[in-house]
Amino acid sequence: MFLSAFAALHDPASRSYYDQCRVCGRTHAQALLRLARHRISVLFAMLRDGTLYEHRTPRSVRLCSPHAWATTENT
User: Which residue stretches of 1-75 are H helix?
Assistant: First the structure.
């Protein structure tokens, strides 16, 4: 799981997701595990729906505000 996410950092959409996690204040390992979980969710959805992977261009999505992560980390 971890190695798959690490290898996927060359994909622009995966890299965008990883970078956004890092902007939110997550560590490298946390961002990679979040990316791995996201990729697994996509894989299960593909199996469930019987579809093939459709490459998508990165979109600017706010996963969280940088301040929200900092406040939840201290609780």
Answer: 2-7, 12-23, 28-49, 66-73
Determine, yes or no, domain membership for 20: yes
Contacts of 3 (CB under 8 A, 6+ apart): none
User: How far is residue 40's CA from residue 60's CA, in Å, rounded to a whole number?
Assistant: 21
Name the token pair of 31: 């961002």
Domain enclosing residue 36, as ranges: 2-69
Report yes or no on 59 lying in a domain.
Answer: yes
pLDDT in tens, 23-64: 999 999 999 999 999 999 989 999 999 999 887 776 655 566
Q: What is the structure's pLDDT at 37?
A: 93
pTM for the model: 0.71
User: Would you call 2 helix, strand, or coil by DSSP?
Assistant: helix
φ, ψ (nearest 5 deg) of residue 24: -75, -5
